[in-house]
Amino acid sequence: MFYEDVRLERELNFVRKIGRLSEHDMHVHDALEVSILLKNDAKYRLIGRDYHGKPGDVFVFRPFEPHYNLVQDTEKPVHWIMLLFSPSIVRSIPEGGKLLRPFYTAASRFSPLIPAHSPYAIAIHDAARQAVLEEENRLPGWQAKQFQAFIDIVVHLYRYYLELDRDAHIDRSTDEGVLRVIEYVLSHFSEDIAIDRLVAMAQMRKTMFYTKFKEMTSLSPNEFISRLRLQSAVYLLDYSDKSVTDIAFECGFHSLSYFNKQFKQFKGLSPREHRNRMKLAGPPGT
What positions does the domain HTH araC/xylS-type occupy (predicted)? Predict the structure, then answer.
């Protein structure tokens, strides 16, 4: 079994998908993912468990969580909308860090499946379809409308999992400290962040903090901060005319040479090479 590391070129991606495979290797996204099943049954596989998906179902995948979806019947291809987004996008949403709690709560605490009969799944389907139509039609203001649909989706996800917690009387006190830290980092990743301050914020011993943080994110705190900065830098390189130096400092890097080194490790090419390649490829959808 091998995991493919799929990285985003945009902070927010709504894509109509059709799947016909009955066998496939697991993959892992350097992103957050929501799968909105539209037509025909699918098998969703995570580590240690399979789920039978039906049209109307919604599946939520934690970052760095290996998974795939396959057809149940090879004669009936699966149709779904895949929402992929960078966690750094919530910096522009009031209290956006809170909305990502479902993606960073320990996997053993909830099922990734939101069943079709749930009013939350119905609302998420409506918003996802609208987001895709906005991008396909590209009427004036379509990106703003799509972003509104995205906010609707993450709000519905957050409310759904809050309701699950209340109904199950789940005590998340052991996770609260790390979740507070994640919310803070999502909103302040471009600033100077002292790890000792994060440890104090979590109200844990340092060793326990590092262990719990890695359980939730699959990264160390420093790796998590660096990843958010790099994802933000990719977006600015693609969608702004700011200089590489300005982008490096805006995203929280204090050295251009260090930024170049980290970016090349992340993307396999320098920031300038990445920007030139994207210019040659043209805007998305062209």
Answer: 179-277
Overall number of domains in the chain: 2
Residue from 61, 89, 251, 64 nearest 186 by CA = 89
pLDDT band at 3 (very low <50, low <70, confident <90, very high): very low
Residue carrying structure tokens 């805006």 = 250
Which tens digits make up the pLDDT trace of 141-180? 999 999 999 999 999 999 998 888 777 655 566 678 998 9
Distance between CA 18 and CA 39 in Å, rounded? 9
Q: Are residues 117 and 177 in the same domain?
A: no
Alpha carbons within 13 A on the beta-carbon side of 180: 15
Residue 119 CA to its chain's centroid (Å): 23
pTM for this predicted structure: 0.82
Find the CATH number of the domain harbouring 46.
Answer: 2.60.120.280
Domain boundary among 133, 168, 203: 168
Name the token pair of 17.
Answer: 């998908």
Task: Give the C-alpha separation, 215 to 90, whole Å.
Answer: 22
Which domain range does residue 16 map to? 4-168
- 56 vs 78: CA distance, rounded Å: 12
